[in-house]
Specification:
alpha/beta, Metallo-beta-lactamase, Chain A, 5-stranded mixed sheet
Length: 276
Protein backbone atom coordinates (compact mmCIF):
# COMPACT_ATOMS: atom_id res chain seq x y z
CA UNK A 1 0.00 0.00 0.00
CA UNK A 2 1.33 3.42 -1.01
CA UNK A 3 0.76 6.53 1.07
CA UNK A 4 1.21 10.24 0.41
CA UNK A 5 1.34 12.63 3.35
CA UNK A 6 1.02 16.40 3.34
CA UNK A 7 0.69 17.84 6.82
CA UNK A 8 -2.60 16.70 8.33
CA UNK A 9 -3.65 14.85 5.16
CA UNK A 10 -2.59 11.31 4.27
CA UNK A 11 -3.82 9.48 1.19
CA UNK A 12 -3.39 5.71 1.14
CA UNK A 13 -3.49 3.90 -2.20
CA UNK A 14 -4.42 0.23 -2.26
CA UNK A 15 -2.60 -2.28 -4.43
CA UNK A 16 -6.03 -3.13 -5.86
CA UNK A 17 -7.51 -0.85 -8.52
CA UNK A 18 -5.48 2.10 -7.19
CA UNK A 19 -8.29 2.65 -4.68
CA UNK A 20 -7.69 5.57 -2.31
CA UNK A 21 -8.44 6.06 1.37
CA UNK A 22 -7.98 9.55 2.79
CA UNK A 23 -7.22 10.48 6.40
CA UNK A 24 -7.44 14.09 7.59
CA UNK A 25 -6.36 14.91 11.16
CA UNK A 26 -8.18 17.98 12.48
CA UNK A 27 -7.98 19.65 15.89
CA UNK A 28 -10.73 17.47 17.35
CA UNK A 29 -11.42 14.68 14.84
CA UNK A 30 -9.77 12.21 12.51
CA UNK A 31 -11.72 11.95 9.26
CA UNK A 32 -11.25 8.64 7.43
CA UNK A 33 -12.72 8.35 3.93
CA UNK A 34 -13.41 4.91 2.42
CA UNK A 35 -10.92 2.72 4.35
CA UNK A 36 -10.22 -0.23 2.07
CA UNK A 37 -9.31 -2.96 0.51
CA UNK A 38 -7.19 -5.87 1.61
CA UNK A 39 -7.23 -6.86 5.29
CA UNK A 40 -3.61 -5.80 5.83
CA UNK A 41 -4.27 -2.49 4.10
CA UNK A 42 -7.30 -1.76 6.28
CA UNK A 43 -5.22 -2.66 9.33
CA UNK A 44 -2.46 -0.29 8.19
CA UNK A 45 -4.99 2.55 7.98
CA UNK A 46 -6.54 1.63 11.33
CA UNK A 47 -3.14 1.48 13.03
CA UNK A 48 -2.19 4.87 11.58
CA UNK A 49 -5.45 6.37 12.84
CA UNK A 50 -4.78 4.96 16.31
CA UNK A 51 -1.30 6.52 16.33
CA UNK A 52 -2.52 10.01 15.46
CA UNK A 53 -5.92 10.20 17.12
CA UNK A 54 -4.99 10.86 20.79
CA UNK A 55 -8.26 12.20 22.22
CA UNK A 56 -9.80 12.94 18.83
CA UNK A 57 -13.06 11.38 17.64
CA UNK A 58 -12.89 9.20 14.54
CA UNK A 59 -15.34 10.00 11.74
CA UNK A 60 -15.76 7.65 8.79
CA UNK A 61 -16.82 9.29 5.54
CA UNK A 62 -18.21 7.03 2.82
CA UNK A 63 -18.32 8.49 -0.66
CA UNK A 64 -20.77 5.86 -1.92
CA UNK A 65 -21.99 2.35 -1.21
CA UNK A 66 -19.95 0.28 -3.68
CA UNK A 67 -18.58 -2.70 -1.82
CA UNK A 68 -14.91 -1.80 -2.29
CA UNK A 69 -15.50 1.52 -0.53
CA UNK A 70 -17.44 0.23 2.49
CA UNK A 71 -15.38 -2.91 3.03
CA UNK A 72 -13.38 -1.50 5.96
CA UNK A 73 -16.20 -0.14 8.11
CA UNK A 74 -16.07 -2.86 10.73
CA UNK A 75 -12.42 -2.10 11.54
CA UNK A 76 -13.40 1.18 13.21
CA UNK A 77 -15.89 0.37 15.98
CA UNK A 78 -17.29 3.42 17.69
CA UNK A 79 -16.54 5.77 14.79
CA UNK A 80 -19.28 8.15 13.67
CA UNK A 81 -20.37 7.64 10.05
CA UNK A 82 -21.11 10.33 7.45
CA UNK A 83 -22.63 9.48 4.06
CA UNK A 84 -25.28 10.76 1.71
CA UNK A 85 -28.92 10.54 2.70
CA UNK A 86 -29.44 8.18 -0.24
CA UNK A 87 -26.74 5.92 1.16
CA UNK A 88 -28.44 5.93 4.57
CA UNK A 89 -31.85 5.13 3.04
CA UNK A 90 -30.67 2.31 0.78
CA UNK A 91 -32.93 -0.70 0.56
CA UNK A 92 -32.29 -3.99 2.32
CA UNK A 93 -31.78 -5.62 -1.07
CA UNK A 94 -29.18 -3.04 -2.12
CA UNK A 95 -27.32 -3.46 1.15
CA UNK A 96 -27.27 -7.21 0.79
CA UNK A 97 -25.90 -6.93 -2.76
CA UNK A 98 -22.96 -4.89 -1.49
CA UNK A 99 -22.32 -7.27 1.39
CA UNK A 100 -22.54 -10.32 -0.88
CA UNK A 101 -19.92 -8.74 -3.14
CA UNK A 102 -17.60 -8.37 -0.13
CA UNK A 103 -18.20 -11.98 0.87
CA UNK A 104 -17.63 -13.18 -2.70
CA UNK A 105 -14.41 -11.17 -2.94
CA UNK A 106 -13.04 -12.49 0.35
CA UNK A 107 -14.01 -16.07 -0.50
CA UNK A 108 -12.40 -15.81 -3.94
CA UNK A 109 -9.04 -14.88 -2.46
CA UNK A 110 -9.31 -16.82 0.84
CA UNK A 111 -9.20 -13.57 2.81
CA UNK A 112 -9.97 -13.41 6.51
CA UNK A 113 -10.81 -10.19 8.34
CA UNK A 114 -10.63 -9.55 12.07
CA UNK A 115 -13.88 -7.59 12.01
CA UNK A 116 -17.47 -8.26 11.06
CA UNK A 117 -18.66 -7.52 7.54
CA UNK A 118 -21.72 -5.27 7.74
CA UNK A 119 -23.32 -2.32 5.98
CA UNK A 120 -22.38 1.00 7.64
CA UNK A 121 -24.89 2.57 10.01
CA UNK A 122 -25.02 6.26 9.11
CA UNK A 123 -25.01 8.73 12.00
CA UNK A 124 -25.01 11.85 9.83
CA UNK A 125 -27.00 11.46 6.59
CA UNK A 126 -26.19 14.41 4.35
CA UNK A 127 -28.87 15.61 1.92
CA UNK A 128 -28.75 18.53 -0.48
CA UNK A 129 -25.74 20.42 -1.78
CA UNK A 130 -23.48 22.47 0.45
CA UNK A 131 -24.78 20.83 3.62
CA UNK A 132 -22.15 21.21 6.34
CA UNK A 133 -21.24 19.11 9.35
CA UNK A 134 -19.13 21.01 11.93
CA UNK A 135 -16.24 19.06 13.44
CA UNK A 136 -14.71 21.38 16.01
CA UNK A 137 -12.65 23.91 14.09
CA UNK A 138 -13.16 21.97 10.87
CA UNK A 139 -16.23 20.98 8.89
CA UNK A 140 -17.36 18.67 6.13
CA UNK A 141 -19.26 20.30 3.26
CA UNK A 142 -21.14 17.70 1.23
CA UNK A 143 -22.49 17.64 -2.33
CA UNK A 144 -24.68 14.97 -3.90
CA UNK A 145 -22.91 13.12 -6.72
CA UNK A 146 -25.13 10.57 -8.47
CA UNK A 147 -24.22 9.05 -11.81
CA UNK A 148 -21.54 6.48 -11.04
CA UNK A 149 -24.06 5.10 -8.62
CA UNK A 150 -27.22 6.54 -7.07
CA UNK A 151 -25.86 7.52 -3.64
CA UNK A 152 -22.52 9.16 -4.36
CA UNK A 153 -21.29 12.25 -2.52
CA UNK A 154 -18.37 14.64 -2.94
CA UNK A 155 -17.06 16.22 0.25
CA UNK A 156 -14.83 19.17 1.04
CA UNK A 157 -12.85 18.98 4.28
CA UNK A 158 -12.44 22.56 5.46
CA UNK A 159 -10.27 24.46 6.25
CA UNK A 160 -7.80 22.05 4.65
CA UNK A 161 -9.15 22.42 1.13
CA UNK A 162 -9.38 18.68 0.47
CA UNK A 163 -12.05 17.56 -2.00
CA UNK A 164 -12.82 13.86 -1.67
CA UNK A 165 -14.39 12.96 -4.99
CA UNK A 166 -15.52 9.35 -4.78
CA UNK A 167 -15.42 7.55 -8.12
CA UNK A 168 -15.09 10.64 -10.30
CA UNK A 169 -12.26 12.45 -12.10
CA UNK A 170 -9.88 9.51 -12.06
CA UNK A 171 -6.74 9.22 -14.15
CA UNK A 172 -6.97 5.43 -13.78
CA UNK A 173 -10.51 4.98 -15.13
CA UNK A 174 -12.87 6.47 -17.68
CA UNK A 175 -16.39 7.03 -16.27
CA UNK A 176 -18.00 3.85 -14.95
CA UNK A 177 -21.71 4.66 -15.32
CA UNK A 178 -23.54 2.29 -13.01
CA UNK A 179 -26.55 4.57 -12.43
CA UNK A 180 -27.36 7.21 -15.06
CA UNK A 181 -25.33 9.00 -17.73
CA UNK A 182 -27.21 12.33 -17.50
CA UNK A 183 -26.77 12.36 -13.72
CA UNK A 184 -23.08 11.59 -14.23
CA UNK A 185 -22.76 14.65 -16.48
CA UNK A 186 -24.55 16.84 -13.92
CA UNK A 187 -22.12 15.69 -11.24
CA UNK A 188 -19.20 16.61 -13.50
CA UNK A 189 -20.75 20.06 -14.02
CA UNK A 190 -21.13 20.37 -10.25
CA UNK A 191 -17.36 20.12 -9.91
CA UNK A 192 -16.92 23.68 -11.25
CA UNK A 193 -19.39 25.08 -8.71
CA UNK A 194 -17.61 23.30 -5.87
CA UNK A 195 -14.22 24.54 -7.02
CA UNK A 196 -15.56 28.09 -7.31
CA UNK A 197 -17.10 28.01 -3.82
CA UNK A 198 -14.11 26.59 -1.94
CA UNK A 199 -10.39 27.22 -1.68
CA UNK A 200 -9.31 23.76 -2.79
CA UNK A 201 -5.76 22.55 -2.42
CA UNK A 202 -6.02 18.80 -2.99
CA UNK A 203 -8.33 16.64 -5.10
CA UNK A 204 -8.60 12.94 -4.23
CA UNK A 205 -10.41 10.59 -6.63
CA UNK A 206 -11.60 7.20 -5.44
CA UNK A 207 -9.17 5.50 -7.81
CA UNK A 208 -5.92 6.89 -9.15
CA UNK A 209 -3.70 9.86 -8.49
CA UNK A 210 -4.56 12.78 -6.21
CA UNK A 211 -3.72 16.21 -7.62
CA UNK A 212 -3.19 19.73 -6.31
CA UNK A 213 -3.69 21.23 -9.77
CA UNK A 214 -7.19 22.57 -10.50
CA UNK A 215 -6.47 22.95 -14.21
CA UNK A 216 -5.40 19.31 -14.35
CA UNK A 217 -8.62 18.24 -12.65
CA UNK A 218 -10.70 20.31 -15.06
CA UNK A 219 -8.91 18.55 -17.90
CA UNK A 220 -9.95 15.21 -16.38
CA UNK A 221 -13.50 16.54 -16.12
CA UNK A 222 -13.49 17.58 -19.79
CA UNK A 223 -12.14 14.19 -20.86
CA UNK A 224 -14.89 12.42 -18.92
CA UNK A 225 -17.57 14.59 -20.49
CA UNK A 226 -16.18 13.88 -23.96
CA UNK A 227 -16.23 10.15 -23.26
CA UNK A 228 -19.89 10.16 -22.19
CA UNK A 229 -21.02 12.32 -25.11
CA UNK A 230 -19.06 10.31 -27.67
CA UNK A 231 -20.32 7.06 -26.14
CA UNK A 232 -23.89 8.29 -26.49
CA UNK A 233 -23.29 9.36 -30.12
CA UNK A 234 -21.66 6.08 -31.12
CA UNK A 235 -24.38 3.99 -29.48
CA UNK A 236 -27.08 6.00 -31.25
CA UNK A 237 -25.25 5.56 -34.57
CA UNK A 238 -24.79 1.81 -33.89
CA UNK A 239 -21.09 2.31 -34.65
CA UNK A 240 -19.56 -0.78 -33.06
CA UNK A 241 -16.11 -0.15 -34.50
CA UNK A 242 -16.13 3.38 -33.10
CA UNK A 243 -17.23 2.07 -29.72
CA UNK A 244 -14.34 -0.38 -29.68
CA UNK A 245 -11.85 2.39 -30.51
CA UNK A 246 -13.21 4.78 -27.88
CA UNK A 247 -11.15 3.21 -25.10
CA UNK A 248 -7.98 2.54 -27.09
CA UNK A 249 -6.15 4.77 -24.60
CA UNK A 250 -7.71 3.26 -21.47
CA UNK A 251 -5.10 2.74 -18.71
CA UNK A 252 -5.98 -0.93 -18.20
CA UNK A 253 -7.86 -1.99 -21.35
CA UNK A 254 -7.96 -5.75 -20.75
CA UNK A 255 -9.90 -5.27 -17.54
CA UNK A 256 -11.76 -2.08 -18.36
CA UNK A 257 -13.33 -3.16 -21.65
CA UNK A 258 -16.09 -4.95 -19.76
CA UNK A 259 -16.99 -1.70 -17.96
CA UNK A 260 -17.03 0.12 -21.29
CA UNK A 261 -19.39 -2.50 -22.69
CA UNK A 262 -21.63 -2.14 -19.62
CA UNK A 263 -21.64 1.63 -20.17
CA UNK A 264 -22.71 1.14 -23.78
CA UNK A 265 -25.52 -1.20 -22.73
CA UNK A 266 -26.71 1.34 -20.17
CA UNK A 267 -26.78 4.07 -22.84
CA UNK A 268 -28.76 1.74 -25.12
CA UNK A 269 -31.36 1.29 -22.38
CA UNK A 270 -31.49 5.02 -21.71
CA UNK A 271 -31.99 5.80 -25.40
CA UNK A 272 -34.69 3.12 -25.68
CA UNK A 273 -36.49 4.51 -22.62
CA UNK A 274 -36.33 8.04 -24.06
CA UNK A 275 -37.84 6.83 -27.35
CA UNK A 276 -40.88 5.31 -25.66
Amino acid sequence: MLSIQDGPVTVFESDLYRTTSTVVVTDSHVVVADPCWLPREVEEIRAYVERVRRDRQVVLLFTHSDYDHIIGWGAFPGAAVVASGSFARSSVAARERSLDQIRDFDDQYYLKRNYKIAYPDVDYPMDGDGTALPLGGARLVCYQAPGHNADGMMTVVEPYGVLILGDYLSDAEFPFIDHDSAAYEETLFQFDAIAHRHDLKLFVPGHGSPSADLAHMKARRDADLRYIRELRRLVAAEDEAGLARLIDDAPFPRNQRKYHEENANRIRRELADAAR
